[in-house]
Design a protein that fits this description.
Residues 2-234 form the GP-PDE domain. By secondary structure, the protein is an alpha/beta fold. It is 34% helix and 19% strand. It is globular, with a radius of gyration of 17 Å.
Length: 238
């Protein structure tokens, strides 16, 4: 069965990685939520995709150089009257206690190395007692190894370059799953993963023909900007 994950929330329709996008994703009935985290100057964890706030907010600067309080003062760029803010990981996890969605936390530490991010995120998940609903993922393969040592939650290795064998990647890192850009995955590679019991989730599947193709191949997870569309497609298919 292919599960639907909302990529940065319902980010095709609402401002990405905001509480609004997450709450709208929940209303679609999708299986899971995917979002990104970075560490702040004062060692807090915030939900934002980029290393800087430039693209998505009315501010400028690197997340690592700003405190949580400074980041909270910024507004997300959008056409909505209500000004969305950058959520902290605590904000999202506290909200998640009120639903049953699977939460995929992507640690964005492949371009900026945040020392101790893995431990901090795992501690926050434990604080809200959500360990049974968490998937960790990261492009930083050293972080995959760290996470495997400090948590019993599922840990997925992310990759987006062609020429990588996902089975060998998962085995070399002791990863539980593979999350890959759909452009670098082939049906044969996915079947190889399936034979070795390695779940594969692909991003970012937004068009029905792609969703159908990979669902037909037995994809474990569809990571999409349009969970409402993907969920309706999945319901019709079943």
């Amino acid at each position: 069965m292919s599960h639907i994950f909302a990529h940065r929330g319902s980010s095709g329709t609402y401002p990405e990685n905001t509480m609004l996008a997450f709450k709208k994703a929940e209303k679609t009935g999708c299986y899971g939520l995917e979002f990104d985290v970075h560490m702040t100057k004062d060692l807090e964890v915030v939900v934002i995709h980029d290393e800087t706030v430039n693209r998505t907010t009315n501010g400028r600067g690197a997340v690592k150089d700003m405190t949580l309080e400074e980041l909270k003062k910024l507004s997300i760029k959008s056409g909505w009257l209500r000004k969305e803010k950058i959520p902290s990981l605590d904000d999202v996890l506290e909200w998640a206690q009120g639903n049953e969605m699977i939460i995929n936390i992507e640690l964005k530490n492949d371009k900026v190395f945040y020392k101790g991010l893995e431990e901090l995120v795992v501690q926050k998940v434990a604080k809200y007692q959500l360990e049974g609903r968490i998937i960790y993922s990261t492009f930083n393969h050293e972080s995959v190894k760290i996470l495997k040592k400090i948590t019993t939650c599922e840990v997925a290795a992310l990759y987006s370059r062609k020429g990588i064998n996902p089975v060998l990647l998962a085995q070399s890192l002791n990863a539980d799953a593979i999350h890959a850009n759909y452009r670098v995955m082939t049906p044969q590679l996915m079947r190889d993963c399936q034979r070795h019991g390695i779940p594969v989730r692909l991003y970012t599947l937004n068009r029905p023909p792609l969703i159908q193709k990979w669902m037909n191949e037995g994809l474990s997870g569809v990571i999409t900007d349009y969970p409402d569309l993907a969920q309706k497609f999945k319901d019709k298919k079943e």
